[in-house]
Amino acid sequence: NSPGSAPAEAAYGLIGACPGKDAGSPFRFPAKRPEARYHSLSTLWGEVNARHFQCLMKPAVLRWSQRASLRRLGFWDPRRDHIVISRSLDHPAVPPELIRYILFHEGLHKQLGVDHREGGRRFHTRTFHALERTLPDWRRWERFLREEWPRLACA
After folding, report:
1. Which pLDDT score is estimated for 30?
2. Is the separation of the CB atoms in 107 and 53 below 8 Å?
3. Helix, strand or coil for residue 23?
4. Rounded to a whole number, what is the distance in angstroms from the first to the last CA of the chain?
5. Predicted local distance difference test score (pLDDT) of residue 120
6. Radius of gyration, CA atoms only, the chain
């Protein structure tokens, strides 16, 4: 078996688990193959959930994108409750902290939902930005995405 090609029955498990949560908790859901060659979304989400959401965030289905997008690195699908991370990030040169930052960003979308105002939808509200900036290294990762990611992604 190559990484990420586990049988369907093995793709179900306790993802985003927190200490003290048992398999019968609401934290059990289909993983949809969150493991890849270099990074594990389930492990990284578990760390993000514990550190930033106090293990209270019911996790979305985590999965890698089918295509390796270099611009859209992650998104939360509110209709299906999926967090999808670009396969381009599953690379040995990508620091796991960057993926944690993107998971935190998408987790905030899940936590806050969609703001429906004036006939439109807003995802990046003032509240969203204020909460995102509570992450100690948010400036570092925003700078990394602006300045270093384009070079790394095209290498």
Report:
1. 35
2. yes
3. coil
4. 28
5. 60
6. 16
Residue-by-residue DSSP string for 33-95? S-B-SS-BHHHHHHHHHHHHSTT-SPPPEEEE-SS--SS--EEEETTTTEEEE-GGG-STTS-
- pLDDT at residue 32 in the model: 53
pLDDT at 11 over 80: no
- pTM metric for this prediction: 0.74
Do 45 and 15 meet the contact criterion of CB atoms below 8 Å apart? Answer: yes
Counting every residue written for the chain, the total comes to 155
Q: Which of 48, 13, 39, 26 is nearest to 96 (CA)?
A: 39
Lookup result for tokens 């969150």: 34
Q: How far is CA 73 from CA 38, 64, 102, in A?
A: 16, 10, 8
At what angle are helices 41-52 and 96-112 packed, to 10 degrees?
A: 60
Q: Residue type for 48, please?
A: V
Q: Is the pLDDT of residue 98 over 60?
A: yes
Structure tokens, 136: 């100690």
Please answer whether residues 61 and 77 qualify as being in contact, where contact means their C-beta atoms are separated by less than 8 angstroms. Answer: no
